[in-house]
Amino acid sequence: MKAKRSVPSSRYPHLAVAVCLHMSASAYADNQSAPASNGQTPQRAQAEDQLVRRQLARPQIEVAFVLDTTGSMGGLLEGAKQKIWSLASRIAMGRPTPRLRVGLVAYRDRGDEYVAKVYPMTENLDAVYEDLQRFEPAGGGDTPEHVGRGLGEAVKNLKWSDSRNVMKIIFIVGDAPPQNYQDEWSYLTWTTRAKQKGIVVNTVQCGSDVTTRTSFLQIAKRGSGTFVSIDAAGGMIATRTPFDEEMASLNARISSMSLYAGRAPARRSAEGRALAMASMPSEAAADRIGYLAKEGSARGAGGLASASTVPLGVRDLLSDKKAIDEVADDELPAELKNKTRAERKAHIQELQAQRKQFEMRVIELSKQRDAWMKKNVSEKDDAFDAQVMKDIRERGVRYGIAY
Question: Which CATH number fits domain 57-237+378-399: 2.60.40.10, 3.40.50.360, 3.30.1490.20, 3.40.50.410?
Answer without folding.
Answer: 3.40.50.410
